[in-house]
Amino acid sequence: MIRAMVESVDANVQVDAVIFGGGIAGLWTLARLRQLGYSAVLIEARALGSGQTIASQGIIHGGVKYALGGAAGRESAAIRDMPAIWRACLEGRGEVDLSAARALSERCYLWTTPGFGSRLMGLAASRAIRATPDRVEIDDRPAVFRDAPKSVDVYGLDEPVLDVATVLSAIADAHGEVIVRARFPENVRLLRGERGVERVFVTVDGCEVEITGERYVFCAGAGNMEYLSRLGPAMAGFVRAQRRPLHMVMARGDLPELFGHAIGASSTPLATITSAGENGDRVWWIGGRVAEEGVAREPDAQIEAAREELAKLLPWVELAGVRFATWRVDRVEGAQAGGKRPAGPIVREVGNAIFCWPTKLALAPRAAEEILEHMPADSAHAQAGVGSAGAPVSDPPWAEQREWRA
Ligand SMILES: Cc1cc2nc3c(=O)[nH]c(=O)nc-3n(C[C@H](O)[C@H](O)[C@H](O)COP(=O)(O)OP(=O)(O)OC[C@H]3O[C@@H](n4cnc5c(N)ncnc54)[C@H](O)[C@@H]3O)c2cc1C
Question: Where are the beta strands (DSSP E) in 343-392?
Answer without folding.
Answer: 346-350, 353-357
